[in-house]
């Protein structure tokens, strides 16, 4: 893909082509973005490996993407990769966020199917077997549907629920509610995903957009195995705005309509003021003047803000930068790195 940034001499998709000749592609790749996940990574690796030996008899790879962690995540990934040749480590040059780290992992995954999963064990890797069976029966995507989120905070659940409800009202692409990025995808779907170059990525929406047969698999979302959430409120808001702006231009239309409505209101107010003026009573009305002025100023700023969100994205897309830069790729003893470490 043109939007990926791998170190010189390392091109996972070309490598996949080379491997394909020998018929040696893993049946499934697990892709997990990791941002300061050192505490739970060993356990994550253990459960994924077990799940893969159940599902595909160990014919798998595990792609761990270090998203610019500041703890021991990368040394740990390297140790896992040295000990088990099925582990592939990617290290981004800086923190790019969950969506881009996942995209980097998807670009590097060679498997016939790819399971995208969080590294904090909130999504159970053991679901892989059942998901594989769904896919054997013809599904292109099997996505996890969160039935219970008891272990998450009330605040997080309320935000998520509000978000999914307004998203489905705003967008035309049917993005299933209460899903995350936890999903098994066929090679066809992953390759289609790799054709999509946008900088602001909302993966679950992009995969819905691709289409094919997409099947839900209900599961109970667990609490984190270790560590704390890497998604503070700020990042949740950013993801929500990315989701809306990448799948809908309806906010722009809402801006237009509210502009129209308020323009008509303004006409009414103008008429009223003229009548008052004709009657000679124009001293009163400071309150209504202030109210009208601040209301209109508010609406104008809101509309400008909405325009700005879209315009800013347009500027960023027009730069055509790679979405992320991978500083190092480790497969077993082989290390491709941008600079010697
Ligand atoms: N993550 C990441 N980069 C970030 C933030 C998060 O790669 O900047 C990873 C994180 O390590 C985890 C996944 O994305 O594997 C989901 O993050 P988290 O569990 O913190 O989000 P939550 O489940 O609380 O929504
Ligand atoms: Mg989590």
Automatic annotation (TrEMBL):
UniProt keyword Glycosyltransferase, yes or no: yes
Record flagged with keyword DNA-binding: no
Keywords carried by this UniProt record: Glycosyltransferase, Membrane, Transferase, Transmembrane, Transmembrane helix
Limits of the Glycosyltransferase 2-like domain: 29-191
Major site of localization recorded for this protein: membrane
Any one Pfam family match given in the protein's UniProt record, by short name: Glycos_transf_2
Membrane topology term: Multi-pass membrane protein
InterPro entries registered for this protein in UniProt: Glyco_trans_2-like, Glycosyltransferase_2, Nucleotide-diphossugar_trans
GO MF term set: glycosyltransferase activity
Annotated localization: Membrane
Ranges that cross the membrane: 254-274, 286-311
GO annotation, cellular component aspect: plasma membrane
Highest taxon of the lineage: Bacteria
PANTHER family, sorted: PROPHAGE BACTOPRENOL GLUCOSYL TRANSFERASE HOMOLOG, UNDECAPRENYL-PHOSPHATE 4-DEOXY-4-FORMAMIDO-L-ARABINOSE TRANSFERASE-RELATED
Protein's UniProt name: Glycosyltransferase family 2 protein
Source species of the chain: Phreatobacter aquaticus
Lineage: Bacteria, Pseudomonadati, Pseudomonadota, Alphaproteobacteria, Hyphomicrobiales
């Amino acid at each position: 893909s043109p939007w990926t940034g791998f170190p010189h001499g390392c091109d996972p998709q070309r490598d996949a082509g080379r491997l394909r000749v020998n018929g040696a592609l893993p049946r499934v790749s697990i892709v997990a973005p990791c941002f300061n996940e050192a505490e739970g990574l060993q356990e994550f690796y253990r459960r994924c490996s077990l799940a893969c030996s159940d599902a595909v008899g160990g014919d798998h790879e595990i792609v761990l993407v270090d998203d610019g962690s500041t703890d021991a995540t990368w040394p740990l990934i390297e140790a896992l990769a040295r000990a088990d040749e099925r582990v592939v480590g990617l290290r981004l040059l800086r923190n790019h966020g969950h969506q881009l780290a996942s995209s980097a992992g998807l670009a590097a995954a060679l498997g016939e199917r790819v399971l995208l999963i969080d590294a904090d064990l909130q999504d159970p890797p053991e679901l892989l077997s059942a998901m594989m069976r769904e896919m054997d029966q013809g599904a292109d995507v099997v996505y996890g549907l969160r039935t219970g989120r008891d272990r998450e905070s009330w605040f997080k659940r309320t935000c998520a629920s509000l978000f999914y409800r307004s998203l489905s009202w705003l967008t035309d692409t049917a993005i299933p509610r209460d899903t995350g990025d936890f999903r098994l995808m066929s090679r066809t779907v992953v390759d289609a995903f790799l054709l999509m170059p946008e900088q602001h990525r909302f993966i679950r929406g992009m995969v819905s957009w691709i289409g094919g047969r997409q099947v839900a698999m209900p599961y109970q979302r667990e609490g984190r195995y270790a560590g704390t959430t890497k998604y503070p409120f700020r990042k949740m808001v950013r993801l929500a705005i990315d989701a809306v702006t990448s799948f809908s231009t309806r906010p722009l239309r809402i801006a237009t309509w509210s502009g129209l409505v308020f323009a008509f209101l303004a006409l009414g107010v103008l008429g009223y003021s003229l009548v008052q003026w004709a009657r000679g009573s124009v001293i009163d009305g400071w309150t209504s003047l202030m109210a009208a002025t601040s209301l209109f100023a508010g609406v104008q700023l809101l509309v400008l803000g909405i325009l700005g969100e879209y315009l800013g994205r347009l500027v960023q897309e027009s730069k055509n930068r790679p979405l992320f830069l991978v500083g190092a790729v480790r497969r077993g003893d082989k290390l491709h790195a941008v600079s010697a470490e």
